């Protein structure tokens, strides 16, 4: 049996919606299906305002423009994240200031943020790795005391709750990804959440190529003009149709994915108990969306052995992120690997396990059995 790292899941409802969108005569952004997705997201999770955009990356970029990121600004973010998180601010001239992660969560270590704040700091961009929320309350508390903006990269955490509140509802700005590797797929797609009412209208201008077309659509003007900077941050209605089908099956998808997390927990707990492998440990504050599963091995060699041996059974395990501060482009900002020793060490030992909705339909026993054998070989139990 072949178990890839990721595989697209289809609920069966996508086909009819996509055909309807194609034949509706309206295929660009912000039409019927976009509106239905936005309504669904607002109703289910209570976001202030939702903008559907072409990707999680585009959501971060649009958020950076909305936050007014300029050359000379500093932005604090974890080094352990995807390139899109940092590029969204580097593109507009900001200097990335990398923060360590908490080894228990692989999310930004909130106790180390304040020491990085300078008069130039404008924004903090935490992420929710593997769908587990960062300590957003602590981040907001620091931001409020220093008058900073928070944009939470929730690319992996659509549907997660932290202390009862849905991911993306707490910070000023939040971004989601609907890439095919995430829980809900538009193929490529994303959303920017804006929780600051005074920024909403400008966000519409930025999304619509810097024009006030929104005022024309709302009947407040009869001709639109160029009023601001902007770009084409719009998701096609055809892709929104596919996304709508996925989001309408959120409970089914989350339920299936929950079985994967349960299987991995059962597999790795003995090794966690013995202190040789670290795994995600949600607390009572966390309600998980079941996005992914990671394991931090005791040594790089054991991680490599685990990946190689799993591959012999056609189970595809991959490394996690390589830290950004010690990546080729991170070094150009003057960083050295030893500047963030915890992140650096984790980067060399973390594995991401195969995790996709369809795994729940017949793969779980195979994966458990084969991985258990490999772990027994490595650790002797
Ligand atoms: C997937 C992801 C992104 C990028 O999303 P795309 O939709 O692929 O552009 C950004 N940040 C994080 C943390 C991600 O996991």
Report a brief summary of the structure.
This protein is α/β, with parallel strands linked by helices and 381 residues long.
Describe the fold and architecture.
With 381 residues, the protein is an alpha/beta fold. It has helices spanning 14-23, 32-45, 56-66, 83-90, 136-146, 200-207, 213-217, 237-247, 250-273, 300-312, 328-331, 341-347, 364-379, and strands at residues 49-53, 74-78, 95-99, 121-124, 149-153, 161-162, 165-166, 173-177, 190-194, 277-279, 286-287, 294-297, 318-319, 350-352. The two termini are 25 Å apart. The model has no long low-confidence stretch (mean pLDDT 98). Bound molecules: pyridoxal-5'-phosphate (PLP).
- Runs in which pLDDT lies below 50 for 5 or more consecutive residues are none
Radius of gyration: 21 Å
Count of strand segments: 14
Based on secondary structure, the structural category is alpha/beta
Mean pLDDT: 98
From the structure provided, what is the oligomeric state, counting identical versus distinct chains? single chain
N- and C-termini, Cα separation: 25 Å
- Which hetero ligands occur in this complex? pyridoxal-5'-phosphate
Strand-and-helix sequence, N→C? Answer: HHEHEHEEHEEEEEHHHHEEEHEHHEH
- Could you tell me the strand content as a percent range? 5-15%
Task: Sum up the structure in keywords.
alpha/beta; seven-stranded mixed beta sheet; binds pyridoxal-5'-phosphate; four-stranded antiparallel beta sheet; 13 helices; globular; single chain; 381 residues
